[in-house]
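Entry type: protein chain
Record version: 2
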Amino acid sequence: MERYIEFVVKHWELAVAFAAVLGLLLWTEKRKGGPSLSTQQATMLINKEDAVVVDVRPRKEFETGHIVNSINIPAADFDKRADELNKHKDKPIIVVCAMGQSAGASAKTLQTRGFARVMKLSGGIAEWKGANLPVVR
């Protein structure tokens, strides 16, 4: 630990630059694709506001287990198929991927197409399964 402190003291410019880049990266990731939801928040939104779950994983992954009543539109086809969700514009949309890392791009696409309430599931389907919430095959 002493070596880190010594490095930061001797090279404070690098430490400040690193902190700034890290802060900007975190800020950018947070803004990308709207807010993230925990599994508990997603469950409440699905049950109380009839939220639509959009799973952006490839079809084969989707078939191994997905959230009940979710719509599968793979991320690779999302730009072409996003219009399929137009009938759900007035409902909250929860975008789900495998680990919570790639849902942001699809959520951003929906936001640019006029969907007002688009959110991402934090941790993706892995977090959902980890919380022992139901999946269907």
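Comment: The chain has a mean pLDDT of 91.
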